[in-house]
């Protein structure tokens, strides 16, 4: 009997030779593809800046010309914020103490976030910033710290040329830019702004997209103190106004200043002026009567954290007690204010005279005077000068707070 042949290679029963196992030579992702992990700490960042040329402080999508946009980008370049967290401030728990408007500066502002602290991080961040934006200090804080809710109050300053408080004829308003104010001018202006102190409804002093009731408390703000003095800088006499309050609304300070200047220009009897000030807090639809002073004279002087610092010192479980706004930090902020903010405001005023243009072109003295003195009704004035109730563009939607 013929023996059957062994199956050929093509047979379905053929078992192929065992292939040698390939060695796993994979080394994982390439080094350049690895995302560097950054050990993060919750910190408070104290910083100063000149706001002219920027669309305010707050980060805006697709618009790098904000102060926070510059700082966030510098932190990323300094490897304090990772690639994953870039352009997403929520991921790092970003919060701000005071949101300043377009063109407004700050000597002492603060943000809180989680970021890396390797090496000389403050110098690295500042190396990627223009000299008109400076990180002054970074302080470790608790995980629950929030810049907006921990701040007690804010102090702003507003600087404008002293000729603005001269007495003006409402029928034929003319601005003499060579005018040097007398003590009676400064005293009257201080009498006007003293009416802002304590709690008032500032609905006529802000921008609202909808009307509110006269007794609405949503627009109430507490002003702790407000005063003005005559100062000379770089050959220019200016009025420096200090405003200390718990919080502020959009355009509030600029409109407070604008209205106080107009009342000082009219130089009405003190009793009549005081009654007008009371009316501005109680009547609705008065926004059209109150002018908005230019942004370039306003800056945030200091954020106050007294209660936070006191609690920190009482906490015996915290061994690394570092106050926010130490004497050394405040000194740096004040030096920045003198060198950059004051000089920017003064030089801009001397070169362009924006305040004189504002008074000549944007303030309708005759119509405002007629309403304040009862020559025409507010309804008639508003019919020919309708209050602006509209939606802000994203570039304008900032707020002093």
From TrEMBL:
Coiled coil ranges: none
Domain Pseudouridine synthase I TruA alpha/beta intervals: 195-305
Bias kind Basic and acidic residues: ranges: 19-35
Entry-linked Gene3D superfamilies: Pseudouridine synthase I, catalytic domain, C-terminal subdomain, Pseudouridine synthase I, catalytic domain, N-terminal subdomain
Active site positions, chain numbering: 101
One Pfam family linked to the record: PseudoU_synth_1
Positions contributing to substrate binding: 156
Region (Disordered): 1-35
InterPro entries: PsdUridine_synth_cat_dom_sf, PsdUridine_synth_TruA, PsdUridine_synth_TruA_a/b_dom, PsdUridine_synth_TruA_C, PUS1/PUS2-like, TruA/RsuA/RluB/E/F_N
Keyword Cytoplasm: no
PANTHER family assigned: PSEUDOURIDYLATE SYNTHASE, PSEUDOURIDYLATE SYNTHASE 1 HOMOLOG
Protein's name in the database: tRNA pseudouridine synthase putative
């Amino acid at each position: 009997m013929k023996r059957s042949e062994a199956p050929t290679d093509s047979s379905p029963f053929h078992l192929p030779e065992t292939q040698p196992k390939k060695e796993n030579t994979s080394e994982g992702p390439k080094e350049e593809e690895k995302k560097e992990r950054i050990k993060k700490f919750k910190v408070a960042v104290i910083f100063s800046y000149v706001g002219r040329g920027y669309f305010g402080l707050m980060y805006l999508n697709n618009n790098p010309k904000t102060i926070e946009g510059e700082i966030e980008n510098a932190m990323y370049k300094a490897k304090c914020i990772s690639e994953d967290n870039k352009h997403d401030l929520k991921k790092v728990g970003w919060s701000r103490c005071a949101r300043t408007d377009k063109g407004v500066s700050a000597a002492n502002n603060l943000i809180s976030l989680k970021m890396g602290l390797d090496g000389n991080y403050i110098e690295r961040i500042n190396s990627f910033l223009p000299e008109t934006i400076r990180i002054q200090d970074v302080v470790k804080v608790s995980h629950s710290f929030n810049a907006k809710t921990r701040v007690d109050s804010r102090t702003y300053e507003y600087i404008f040329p002293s000729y603005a408080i001269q007495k003006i004829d409402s029928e034929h308003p003319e601005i003499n830019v060579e005018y040097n104010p007398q003590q009676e001018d400064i005293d009257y202006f201080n009498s006007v702004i003293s009416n802002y102190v304590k709690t008032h409804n500032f609905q006529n002093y802000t921008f609202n997209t909808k009307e509110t009731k006269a007794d609405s408390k949503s627009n109430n703000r507490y002003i702790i103190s407000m005063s003005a003095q005559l100062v000379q800088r770089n050959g220019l006499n200016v009025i420096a106004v200090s405003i200390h309050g718990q919080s502020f609304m959009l355009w509030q300070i600029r409109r407070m200043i604008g209205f106080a200047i107009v009342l000082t220009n009219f130089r009405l009897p003190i009793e009549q002026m005081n009654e007008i000030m009371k009316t501005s807090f109680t009547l609705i639809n008065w926004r059209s009567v109150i002018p908005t002073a230019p942004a370039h004279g306003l800056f945030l002087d200091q954020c106050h954290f007294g209660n936070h610092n006191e609690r920190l010192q009482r906490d015996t479980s915290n061994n690394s007690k570092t106050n926010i706004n130490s004497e050394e930090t405040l000194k740096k902020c004040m030096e920045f204010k003198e060198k950059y903010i004051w000089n920017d405001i003064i030089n801009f005023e001397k070169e362009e005279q924006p305040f004189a243009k504002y008074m000549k072109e944007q303030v309708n003295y005759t119509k405002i005077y007629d309403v304040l003195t009862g020559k025409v009704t507010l309804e008639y004035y508003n019919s020919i000068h309708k209050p602006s109730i509209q939606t802000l563009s994203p570039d304008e939607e900032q707020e002093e707070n």
